[in-house]
């Protein structure tokens, strides 16, 4: 108080000075402050710029600044620094950007990372702090991250040797009781045991413990056991200890699935995992971490035999118990997605197995989703390396004031490419064409006024032509219910089985449900899908296209009286049906080639990878009268039938997609006559070889016998002479001349007369 | 090929043999009698009565003059074929399991069972073909067997050795003069048969012989060196095997053990005569008919037929059809020399 009273001018001046000083200090402090909290968070490093000399330095900086500005993160001249290599007289290929705030730097890092500078240079943006951190991080010599086991390096044998069979045959594995045997499927059902280099057949009497399964490209054979799964590879599906077998521990395992490129494996067991520290199983203790306790699904890295992540699995109430959970993979093994029924789709990035953008895709009511499958071209090495967007389709059911909806989404950008509203929907099924050309959504519908909305009575097919711009949708209304839908692989056709039989879905013994089979084809002129043929009143309930298209098998499964197998050709051309050639009636060529029967069949027929042979199996896994299998060719001719007690499985070894381009294939097709001559000769030689070998071996044993016998015979004759012991044996010729005459006397009557 | 069925025995057949001409067939049975039959029509010519136990074995000389038999009544008897008179009886302490004639008709042998502390013994006697009933009681040589007992035996073609088959699967060759074993093929060395040898028959000229065994195989051995030449692997225990003259086949017979016959169906019992190619070791055909295991097989010396005797008590005499002689299941591959 007194202060104020004592004169104003001097005190005012002091205060001003004080203020000024404070301001100055503040300014200085602000200017020279060491920002401990901020660190280098506002500095990012852009790597991958072009290397230029001094003349073009300024121009490069200008161009970079332009790019950053376009990206929405402009930078001032004095905040960009380009380190210079004085010796080479060029820049060092990276620049430092210092943004005013960490927020801006963060944005810049996100938008600039992996952008393209021109066509040749991809830029990578990283926080300066990160670079510092990772360069200084100790690599921890000897200490492996959790889940890694230190395994000595072993040279793997050729994993794809079976593709190099000179005769181009396919392999198949059979499981009878516990015995697994591997065969080559030769021409016309002549199979040959696959042999190891030492001539012993490839077989195993332990693989049949539960079941076997091939990986999608045929590289591995998975044999599933109570304690886990083993993957076998290499030319002999076995080898020196540890070379060609990979073992994955998962007690109680019930299903295995592979990623499309065979990098990852998913195993599922209905039994929750034990806590590793209390588990009695040593290998569980070694493999799993405490946080895996109670989980059911394990995602593995195959090559490192390492757990990537485990999940809990709650069985869905709308699926039969024991249905394995499905983790669905994007084409190049980059993402794996899992449905949270009704709420979300979780997309995980590989190999980190972390959620894409750290969160699940929240989709209210989502019921099902499917990735667009990889086409053959997607398996080319160059394609596999590319960063790409993948399509994923999903559907949501009707909710209050909202129609049902099918969406096609792009991952990882998460942008919806196409969506369609649907009404009166009971459920939807998503069917992708095997090359990803089309998506068909089979919409099971009920009448608007129907009491029960759970029972579908008719179907719509909504066909999304996903390869075309804006994704046009064709709608086909079908008056009957469609239990099965199949795209023709590689083709532009599909087949459906439909029925309006009231008995459908109610298994009544002795009642056969009849189905109508319809074939649709893309009409290029009208640019939609048109019906080309209907087969009415069939008992068959299974539709199977050959993996190469064109041929089709219709089988009757699960019946106690009918075991029919029908073979159909979609393009059967003869001189008689010329109309089809002229394109007037595309359905005229659809011809039944044969009708076969396999008594007791209880498994879906399986085509070999070439589409030339079909196997039908009566498996002892399910009740059947006659376990065994039949091998047919595509014409429906029965090549062989094997009946064996406790016969369980017949599985064709898959092949990876062809490496030839369409042009190369076309060329081969054009020069087929040239090529086939070589094969015809080989076939003829093959046919003769079996008998020739046999003949040679018989000739050999005959010659040996003759030589031995004549020598011994002489010796004995000499001996007999020496001892004077000539055997008094009758000559065969003498005996031949002998005739036995037989007199048969028959007493006709015997009467006694007394002669007086 | 319709067989002639001989129904003259009440119990299982043990051994049947053709005479050298092939017009007669002798059959021995567990019902204590030996029958002789005309092979042309199956008519019975006569019976040799006198044994008081199962007749285990019969042998006939090359002149069809004398018949030799061994039985469970611990005797070996010599019979006159034409009259049915018993000329001579040798008595032992145990059953006679096998008898054999040498190719030159001068020697006979008997194998007695190993039982009640008695060893299995092979006795070789000289037969005087003119002497009739006054035959020597003392054997020319006694070979007392140590180790596995002998079940079957034949004389070597030059009558200087005896070739035996044993209970453990061993095939051995003994020198008649010394009684020493000179050569053997034994399962103890991991060779030859693995189980009891059930039959042994010589080839027509004696150069080789066939053995059948409970180990489900039949084998051909060279009669000089006892070297295994061929193996025929079947899926049933074999009781008998013979070598057909003229055509390059062997005939094998057997079936489930008599003990388990009642529990097996006829089809599963595998009571068939099997024809195998002698050289290629491949089966070429089967003849069915018996409803019990085949115990004994014999082939017509001229290769014109064969007979089988079974546990079911029947003998089936088969005469081969023309097709048998003409058929060439392996094309033109035929041995050079065949007797």
TrEMBL record, chain A:
GO CC annotations on file: eukaryotic 43S preinitiation complex; eukaryotic 48S preinitiation complex; eukaryotic translation initiation factor 3 complex
Residues spanning the signal sequence: none
GO molecular-function terms, A-Z: RNA binding; translation initiation factor activity; translation initiation factor binding
Single GO BP term: formation of cytoplasmic translation initiation complex
UniProt KW keywords: Cytoplasm, Initiation factor, Protein biosynthesis, RNA-binding
Pfam families, sorted: eIF2A
InterPro entries, per the entry: EIF3B, Nucleotide-bd_a/b_plait_sf, RBD_domain_sf, TIF_beta_prop-like, WD40/YVTN_repeat-like_dom_sf
Subcellular location: Cytoplasm
Domain Translation initiation factor beta propellor-like: 420-573
Family in the record: Belongs to the eIF-3 subunit B family.
Record text on subunit structure and interactions: Component of the eukaryotic translation initiation factor 3 (eIF-3) complex.
Chain's role: Component of the eukaryotic translation initiation factor 3 (eIF-3) complex, which is involved in protein synthesis and, together with other initiation factors, stimulates binding of mRNA and methionyl-tRNAi to the 40S ribosome. RNA-binding component of the eukaryotic translation initiation factor 3 (eIF-3) complex, which is involved in protein synthesis of a specialized repertoire of mRNAs and, together with other initiation factors, stimulates binding of mRNA and methionyl-tRNAi to the 40S ribosome. The eIF-3 complex specifically targets and initiates translation of a subset of mRNAs involved in cell proliferation.
Name the record gives this protein: Eukaryotic translation initiation factor 3 subunit B
From TrEMBL, chain B:
UniProt-annotated location(s): Cytoplasm
InterPro entries in the record: eIF3i, WD40/YVTN_repeat-like_dom_sf, WD40_repeat_CS, WD40_repeat_dom_sf, WD40_rpt
Spans of repeat WD: 6-47, 48-89, 190-231, 287-317
GO biological process, one term: formation of cytoplasmic translation initiation complex
Keyword ATP-binding attached: no
Alphabetic keyword roster: Cytoplasm, Initiation factor, Protein biosynthesis, Repeat, WD repeat
Domain of life, per lineage: Eukaryota
Gene Ontology, cellular component aspect: eukaryotic 43S preinitiation complex; eukaryotic 48S preinitiation complex; eukaryotic translation initiation factor 3 complex, eIF3m
GO MF entry, a single one: RNA binding
Pfam families noted in UniProt: EIF3I (PF24805)
Main location: cytoplasm
CDD domains for the chain: WD40
Quaternary structure and partners: Component of the eukaryotic translation initiation factor 3 (eIF-3) complex.
Record family assignment: Belongs to the WD repeat STRAP family. Belongs to the eIF-3 subunit I family.
Function: Component of the eukaryotic translation initiation factor 3 (eIF-3) complex, which is involved in protein synthesis of a specialized repertoire of mRNAs and, together with other initiation factors, stimulates binding of mRNA and methionyl-tRNAi to the 40S ribosome. The eIF-3 complex specifically targets and initiates translation of a subset of mRNAs involved in cell proliferation.
Protein name as annotated: Eukaryotic translation initiation factor 3 subunit I
């Amino acid at each position: 108080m007194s202060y104020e009273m004592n004169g104003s001018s001097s005190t005012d001046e002091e205060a001003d000075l004080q203020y000024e000083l404070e301001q100055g200090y503040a300014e200085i402090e602000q200017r020279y402050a060491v920002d401990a909290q901020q660190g280098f968070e506002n500095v990012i490093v852009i790597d991958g710029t072009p290397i230029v000399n001094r003349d073009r330095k300024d121009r490069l900086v200008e161009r970079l600044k332009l790019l950053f500005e376009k990206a929405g993160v402009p930078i001032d001249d004095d905040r960009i620094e380009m380190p210079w290599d004085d010796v080479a007289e060029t820049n060092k290929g990276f620049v430092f950007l210092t943004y005013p705030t960490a927020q801006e730097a963060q944005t810049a890092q996100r938008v600039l990372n992996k952008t393209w500078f021109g066509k040749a240079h991809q830029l990578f943006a990283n926080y300066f702090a990160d670079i510092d951190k990772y360069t200084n991080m100790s690599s921890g010599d000897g200490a492996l991250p959790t889940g890694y086991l230190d395994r000595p390096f072993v040279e793997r044998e050729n994993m794809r040797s079976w593709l190099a069979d000179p005769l181009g045959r396919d392999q198949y594995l059979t499981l009878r009781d516990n015995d697994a045997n591997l065969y080559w499927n030769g021409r016309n059902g002549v199979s040959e045991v696959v042999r190891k280099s030492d001539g012993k057949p490839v077989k195993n009497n332990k693989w049949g413990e539960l079941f076997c399964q091939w990986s999608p490209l045929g590289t591995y054979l998975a044999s599933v056991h109570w304690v886990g799964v083993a993957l076998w590879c290499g030319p002999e599906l076995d080898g020196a200890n540890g070379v060609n077998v990979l073992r994955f521990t998962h007690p109680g395992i019930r299903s295995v699935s592979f990623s499309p490129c065979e990098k990852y494996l998913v195993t599922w067991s209905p039994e929750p995992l034990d806590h590793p520290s209390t588990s009695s199983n040593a290998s569980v203790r070694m493999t799993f971490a405490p946080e895996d306790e109670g989980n059911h699904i394990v995602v593995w890295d195959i090559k490192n035999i390492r757990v990537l992540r485990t999940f809990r699995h709650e069985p869905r109430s709308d699926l039969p118990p024991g249905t394995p959970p499905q983790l669905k993979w994007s084409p190049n093994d980059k993402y794996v997605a899992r449905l949270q029924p009704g709420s979300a789709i979780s997309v995980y990035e590989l190999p980190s197995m972390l959620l894409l953008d750290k969160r699940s895709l929240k989709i209210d009511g989502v019921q099902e989703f499917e990735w667009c499958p990889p086409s053959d071209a997607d398996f080319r090495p160059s394609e596999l390396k590319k960063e790409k967007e993948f399509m994923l389709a999903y559907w949501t059911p009707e909710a209050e004031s909202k129609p049902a909806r099918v969406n096609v989404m792009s991952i990882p950008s998460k942008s919806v490419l196409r969506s369609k509203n649907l009404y009166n929907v009971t459920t939807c099924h998503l069917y992708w064409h095997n090359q990803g050309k089309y998506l068909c959504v089979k919409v099971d519908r009920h009448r608007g006024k129907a009491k029960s909305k759970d029972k579908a009575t008719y179907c719509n097919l909504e066909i999304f032509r996903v390869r075309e711009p804006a994704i046009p949708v064709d709608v086909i209304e079908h008056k009957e219910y469609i239990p099965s839908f199949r795209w023709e692989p590689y083709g532009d056709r599909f087949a459906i089985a439909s029925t309006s039989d009231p008995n459908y879905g109610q298994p009544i013994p002795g009642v056969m449900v009849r189905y109508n089979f319809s074939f649709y084809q893309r009409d290029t002129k009208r640019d939609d899908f048109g019906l080309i043929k209907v087969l009415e009143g069939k008992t068959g309930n299974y539709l199977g296209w050959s993996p190469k298209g064109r041929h089709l098998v219709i089988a009757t499964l699960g019946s106690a009286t009918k075991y029919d197998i029908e073979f159909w050709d979609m393009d059967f051309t003869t001189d008689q049906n010329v109309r089809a050639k002229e394109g007037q009636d595309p359905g005229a060529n659809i011809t039944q080639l044969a009708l076969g029967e396999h008594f007791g069949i209880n498994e879906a027929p399986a085509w070999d990878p070439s589409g030339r042979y079909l196997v039908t199996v009566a498996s002892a896994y399910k009740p059947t009268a006659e376990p065994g299998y039949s091998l047919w060719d595509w014409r429906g001719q029965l090549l062989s039938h094997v009946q064996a007690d406790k016969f369980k499985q017949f599985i064709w070894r898959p092949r990876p997609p062809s490496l030839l381009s369409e042009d190369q294939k076309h060329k081969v097709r054009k020069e087929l006559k040239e090529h086939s001559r070589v094969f015809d000769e080989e076939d003829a030689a093959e046919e003769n070889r079996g008998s020739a070998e046999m003949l040679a071996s018989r000739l050999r044993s005959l010659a040996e016998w003759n030589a031995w016998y004549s020598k011994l015979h002489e010796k004995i004759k000499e001996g007999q002479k020496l001892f004077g012991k000539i055997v008094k044996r009758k000559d065969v010729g003498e005996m031949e001349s002998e005739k036995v005459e037989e007199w048969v006397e028959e007493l006709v009557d015997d009467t006694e007369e007394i002669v007086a | 090929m319709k067989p002639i069925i001989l129904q003259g025995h009440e119990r299982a057949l043990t051994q049947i043999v053709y005479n050298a001409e092939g017009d007669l067939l002798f059959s021995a049975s567990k019902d204590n009698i030996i029958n002789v039959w005309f092979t042309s029509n199956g008519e019975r010519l006569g019976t040799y009565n006198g044994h008081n136990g199962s007749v285990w074995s019969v042998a006939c000389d090359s002149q069809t003059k004398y018949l030799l038999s061994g039985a469970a009544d611990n005797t070996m008897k010599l019979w006159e074929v034409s009259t049915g008179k018993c000329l001579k009886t040798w008595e032992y302490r145990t059953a006679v399991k096998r008898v054999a004639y040498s190719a030159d008709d001068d020697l006979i042998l008997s194998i007695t069972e190993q039982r009640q502390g008695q060893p299995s013994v092979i006795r070789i006697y000289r037969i005087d073909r003119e002497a009739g009933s006054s035959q020597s009681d003392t054997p020319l040589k006694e070979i007392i067997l140590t180790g596995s007992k002998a079940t079957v035996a034949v004389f070597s073609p030059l009558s200087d050795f005896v070739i035996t088959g044993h209970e453990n699967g061993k095939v051995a060759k003994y020198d008649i003069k010394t009684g020493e074993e000179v050569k053997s093929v034994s399962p103890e060395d991991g060779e030859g048969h693995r189980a009891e040898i059930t039959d042994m028959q010589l080839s027509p000229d004696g150069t080789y012989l066939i053995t059948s065994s409970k180990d489900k195989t039949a084998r051909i051995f060279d009669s000089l060196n006892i070297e295994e030449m061929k193996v025929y692997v079947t899926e049933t225990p074999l009781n008998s095997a013979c070598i057909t003259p003229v055509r390059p086949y062997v005939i094998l017979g057997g079936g489930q053990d008599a003990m388990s016959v009642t529990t097996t169906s006829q089809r599963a019992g595998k009571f068939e005569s099997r024809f195998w190619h002698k050289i290629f070791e491949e089966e070429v055909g089967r003849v069915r008919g018996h409803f019990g295991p085949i115990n004994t097989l014999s082939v017509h010396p001229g290769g014109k037929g064969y007979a089988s005797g079974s546990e079911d008590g029947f003998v089936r005499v088969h005469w081969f059809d023309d097709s048998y002689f003409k058929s060439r299941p392996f094309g033109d591959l035929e041995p050079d020399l065949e007797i």
